[in-house]
What we know:
Layout: E1 8-11, H1 12-19, H2 25-34, H3 47-55, H4 65-90, E2 96-99, E3 116-119, H5 122-133, H6 137-148, H7 154-160, E4 163-166, H8 171-191
Parallel strand pairs: 1-2, 3-4
Helix pairs in contact: 1-4, 2-4, 5-6
Amino acid sequence: MLxxxxxxxxxADHIAHELMQPGQPVFHExxxxxxxxxxxxxxRVSRPKLAEAVFSPDKHGATRVEELNKIVHPAVIRRQDxxxxxxxRVDPHAIAxxxxxxxxxxxxxxxxxxxxxxxxxxxxxxxxxxxxxKIDVDTARREVERRKxxxxxxxxxxxxxxxxxxxxxSLDSTQAQVRNLFATLRKQAELSR
Length: 193
């Protein structure tokens, strides 16, 4: 929605996908750590297989989330930094948005001028995840819970945020919040000139 108002956008998840393509250093490192069992028939990283390897607890209850994050996060952060520098060269007053679910967990929060947390109810999160992946709600609930265990709770993120978008209401309500946020960011950018 911010991009629709004129913000420049990059998504950490898309960067991670690019970095995990065959031939990329991150791809080789992920396969070295998690094995060839995470690859699909075409030799590409299978996200469901990788998620299973990363989020499934071992006999001691430990997951391998941190292991994956230590491989992927530094490379993603470098790419984000390069992109933000380029945006600043093109337009020093541009509103550049990095969409990332794990900014706090990656220790990258201080790299940004403003932090926006988007939140919704737990039930909506499960329902939306189920719809996006076309899976049943019970499976989605288990997967959301498993992933949440590796993330900061929304309450902690909200305390550190400069802005919060409550995405639990109607689409119109969310769009109104984003419109107001963009206007505020635009004013702040103009004041910095």
